[in-house]
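Can you please make up a whole protein chain along with its backbone structure tokens because I've never seen that pairing?
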Amino acid sequence: MIATTESSADLSTSEIFLARNSVFDSSGRVIAYEMLFRSRESVDEGRPDDLATSTQVIVNSMSHFGLEGVLGSADGFIHVTEKLLMSNTLEILPAQRIILEIMPDVSLNSEMLKRLQELKTTGFRIALVDSSLGDAAESKGAVEGVDSILPLIDIIKVNLKTTSPEDILRLIERVRLLAKPIFWATQVKTGEDLAACKAQGFSLFSGPYFSQPLVMRSKKPQALQVSLMKIVGLLFKDEGIATLEPLFKANPDLTLGLFRLVNSVGVAGHLQISSVRQALVTLGQKQLLQWMLLLIYTEAGNAATSELQRRVVNRARLIELLSQHEDITQPGLSDQAFVVGLLSLAHKVTGQTMEEVLKHIHLAEHLQNALLHHEGILGQLLVLTDAIEAADFSRMEASRSHLGISAQSLTDLQLQAIAWTNELDRQMSSMKG
């Protein structure tokens, strides 16, 4: 029987923390996000969460913000309990974009089999956690139920941290006798882990290996990045067009990108842009600085850098929005917050330390201290952002409480930042075309 759930659960009445895990394909491209939710009360009390309630709140909020705003062009994994699966809450989501990740404690009985068949008919894809197929399930006499459900499963999620290589091989062999799902490896920590999983037939991947990508293997920055850092440094020194213009003229790729940017953002209006000088004047210093910082994270044709760019844009926008919170805001702080966010991962792509990166840039001392030592209000906002990206709900709670930001406000600002990032990503994709 399908239970009716209350539709009144939303962000205005519940305090839910939100985090996302990126799910990558074999080429290193993000194809989905695993949406993670925790109620503030469960974090405070150190107890298990009522996942059904938390997920219902986020499902409703995703519907409110629009799926494109939350996920962009990617698909979304949502953890589902038995209660949620048997409710009508899922009906408000577009089935073609959502993968329902069944939690290990869901009873895989005949009633659930029927419900999963109904959900599959509407277009939902189903993911099953590997622990649902292990010894624990077998000891409950659930082997027959699991085997009957396997043909409905699209994705099997395997945790490399808790499942031995031998058990992984046995699991894959068993599943492939009955079905042909895609295998998703989580907790991928090293390049060796990734290579081994690909050899075993895994197609989806997530874990620490992807969250801290060192894009450049050389310790020496590329020539384009050196030029970018020079321009960023000049912009922080408020140098004029006459100083900037020669650097663009010496780099055709930068000049082409500059013209595309001016045209794509619509700042030129009906003007005919005919020179580098005119393009620089039309664009303005603030927007030029933000674009230069973004280009540091760009490497043509590299899927890993594209995701890193999305990540840094999202954290910059989130820190900017947080800095505008009524209990934090100060004159000029939001512009500084955005710049700090954009610079906070620059060392990941230049192969340098943050200290070396900052030598190229004449940054105010309090901004340097925020980046190097997490000092001051901007440093505290970086700490909160790091916790969000790590899906560390305890650190998120401690940090947001210290800053005086409610969990409700934090989640709302996260969703705004994600939507803004997705829109900017679409704009930049059109520029490349």
